[in-house]
Every structure is written in structure tokens, then in C-alpha cells.
Amino acid sequence: MGTVVEASAIATPGGDPSIGALGLADAAARACIERAHRTPDDVQLLINVGVYLDRNMSEPAIAALIQEDIEANLEPSPGGGQGTFSFDVRDGACGLLTAIELIDGLLASGAIEVGMAVATDADPEPGLTEGFGFPALGGALMLSTDEARRGFTRFRSATFTAYADLFSSAIDWRVENGGGRNVLTVEIADDYPARVLECAEVTTRELAEADGLELGEVDALFATASTPGFGQALAQRLGIPPARAASLPTGLDRAHTAGLAAALESSSLAETGTALLVSAGAGITVATAVYRW
User: Fold this and answer.
1) pTM assigned to the model
2) Residues 274, 291: contact at Cβ < 8 Å?
3) In terms of residue numbers, what domain contains 122?
């Protein structure tokens, strides 16, 4: 019995720039629930991993706001039954895989039967932030257990601190015209794409060795690092045919925390025998997982 992805979904603002990070998270979560043929009350654990949020909001937990918006177990269960526990995890672009690993542990322990991971990012203050190049995007994954499938068999993550300065973001107070405001600045060095590729290769090879996986056996690679062409370049370095690497939908190749959900939109995990999931971002931090049908 393993942890499996029941459904995934993404949400974009379309032509409505007023839809922010929370609205995108809500839309993705609702779509994911519908695709899984479930109700909001089925979600016993909800983890949000978004980083760039409306007006740089950090409190209260965004997961709790999403839970309220989608109306997941808003009232106490009669007799103290299972409700919905929601919280945020901040692990940058690796957040979705980190959330999946946490949900996997709770599913394996029997503490929950269904969990959802939600990722969302949008420019917190359009026109005021500096260097923000990520598309507005929400993503959600629904997870549960299946006695007939292996699902996620191994996770591995690593941080390469020597490259910590290649991708950074910070909020600074700026005094302007007698007043002041917080300004988000995102800085990504020119050599970040090359270095993140190297770090992802090292971590993925370590994962494959620990799991006894021959990289030539990989049927699908879902890899994102907020850089165009990352998945295909990583596949080539690993000896996986580039055609097996998922391509993100047009305009979403620089997606941040929801990038992995966007990659899954191009090819369902249910259609693959063995898949590799890789996310990388600031740190440089890389998170990886093996998923087997």
C-alpha cells in the first residue's frame, strides 16, 4: 500500500489581474477536489506551501484561509470525529514535494486518510515589486493510499549552501516622499540555471541509488526550477530521453511553488510506470521523489 496522487489541478488568473494568490489557491483546491470526485469535508489535512502572497501576507496561516474558503469541515464533527487540520509550510520552490512527504507520513501512520497540498504564488503588489518574474499560478494535489499501488517509494532533499546567493528574495522598508512602504525584491543570478541543474543532477542520482532505481527505467520526469527548459536539460544529464520530461504549459515555465502541479497537467502519473519528481529553488535546495505505479 502506498501514497498515491488522486488528482491534480492548477488555476491561473486568465484575464482577471485582480485574482491574487489566495484566489488562485482556492480555485486550484476546488478543481482538485472535483477531479478527485470528493467533497471538501473529505480533506483531513490541508498544507499550503505558497511563498509570494497577496500584500506579502504571512499571518494567519494561509492554509486556514483556504480551508475556510473551500468550506472544508468548518463545523466541529459530532462526537469529536475527524475534521480538517490545516497549516503552512515554507520551503520555497520545493514546498509541494515537502508537503507530499509530510502527508505521506501521516497517511502511512493512519492518522489521516486524505490529504491535500496547495501551492500558490502571485506578485504581491504589481508594479511595486522588483525582479518578480514568476507567473501567477495556483496548484493543488490530492493524496490518499491505495492497496494495489506502490505510489511514492522514496524522497530525498539536499541544500547546496555554496550557491545560496544565486536566488534570493527579501522585503525591505523604503522611505519615499515623506512616507514608506515595504518592497519585495527578487534577485536571480545569471548562472543560477546552470548551477541548479548541477545540484538537481547530484540529488536525483543519490535518490536513484538509494531507491535502487535505474534511471533508464524512468518513464516520466516531472522537474521544475523556475527556469525554462529545466526538465528537458535535466533529463539529458540523467540519460533519460528528453521526450519523457514533462513540458510546462505555455507561459508557466517560470512557475515557482506550483510549478510541479503545472508539470503534472501535461501527463498524468496514472499513465506512467515509474516517475521522478524534482523541484529546485533558492538555497540552492533540491527535493526529489520516486513514484511507482
Assistant:
1) 0.94
2) yes
3) 2-148
Task: Based on the fold, state whether residues 134 and 195 are members of the same structural domain.
Answer: no
Annotate 111-145 with b (16+ C-beta within 10 A) or e (fewer). ebebbbbbbbbbbbeeeebeebebbbbbbbbbbbb
Query: What digits encode the pLDDT tens for the residues 128-178?
Result: 899 999 999 999 999 999 988 889 999 999 999 999 999 999 988 888 777
- In terms of domains, do 73 and 140 share one? yes
How many CB atoms sit inside 10 A of residue 1's CB?
12
CB 272 within 8 A of CB 219: yes
CB 275 within 8 A of CB 150: no
Count of domains in the chain?
2
Q: What is the pLDDT of residues 232-283, one digit of tens each?
A: 999 999 999 999 999 888 889 999 999 999 999 877 666 678 999 999 999 9
